């Protein structure tokens, strides 16, 4: 059994290649972060043919995110190959971010979560209400 690089807990191997298991664990840890999830959504709304978004535009599109967290999250996403950053040599410099092909593929996977939430919203709210009244 291998150990998770993020938590150092044992993890079940689902692949013959431990590198794949490690990558899945790391990716889930990275994208399970709410800011990554919300930034992918904001960048996906731009669409593959509609261009990129500026840093300040992304900050407005994701309410509650600080500049520091926005910077850190975009850098992590860029490192993972999910986001491409373009710097234009202007004064002041203009920086734009766009989802890469991998980023769009991940956004498609997130779409399934949104669809699941939409299908189950009433059931989840009912379960929560029932649970909350049991105390």
Explain what this protein looks like in three dimensions:
- It is a single chain.
- The protein is of the alpha+beta class and 135 residues long.
- It is built from five helices and five strands, in the order ββααβααββα.
- It has helices at 18-31, 34-46, 55-61, 67-79, 101-134; strands at residues 2-3, 10-11, 53-54, 83-88, 94-99.
- The chain has a three-stranded antiparallel beta sheet with strand order 3-5-4. It has a two-stranded antiparallel sheet with strand order 1-2.
- Strand 1 (2-3) and strand 2 (10-11) form a beta hairpin.
Given this structure, which CATH class of the largest domain is correct?
Mainly Alpha
Order of helix and strand elements from N to C terminus: EEHHEHHEEH
> By helix and strand content, what is the structural category?
alpha+beta
Q: What global shape is seen?
A: globular
Mean pLDDT: 83
> What is the CATH superfamily of the largest domain?
Winged helix-like DNA-binding domain superfamily/Winged helix DNA-binding domain
CATH architecture of the largest domain: Orthogonal Bundle
Count of domain modules: 2
Q: Tell me what portion of residues adopts beta-strand conformation.
A: 5-15%
Beta-strand segment tally: 5
Low-pLDDT runs: none
Major sheet strand order: 3-5-4
Can you give the helix content as a percent range? 55-70%
> Major beta sheet, specifics?
3 strands, antiparallel
CATH topology of the largest domain: Arc Repressor Mutant, subunit A
Determine Rg (CA atoms, Å): 18 Å
Number of helices: 5
Distance between the termini: 40 Å
């Amino acid at each position: 059994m291998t150990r998770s690089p993020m938590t150092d807990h044992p993890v079940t191997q689902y692949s013959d290649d431990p590198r794949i298991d490690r990558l899945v664990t790391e990716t889930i840890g990275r994208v399970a972060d709410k800011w990554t999830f919300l930034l992918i959504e904001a960048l996906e709304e731009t669409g593959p043919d509609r261009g990129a978004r500026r840093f300040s535009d992304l900050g407005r599109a994701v309410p509650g995110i600080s500049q520091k967290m926005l910077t850190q999250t975009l850098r992590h996403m860029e490192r993972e190959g999910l986001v491409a950053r373009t710097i234009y040599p202007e004064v002041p410099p203009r920086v734009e971010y766009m989802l890469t092909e991998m980023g769009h593929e991940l956004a498609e996977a997130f779409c399934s979560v949104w669809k699941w939430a939409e299908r189950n919203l009433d059931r989840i709210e009912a379960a929560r209400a029932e649970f909350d009244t049991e105390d």
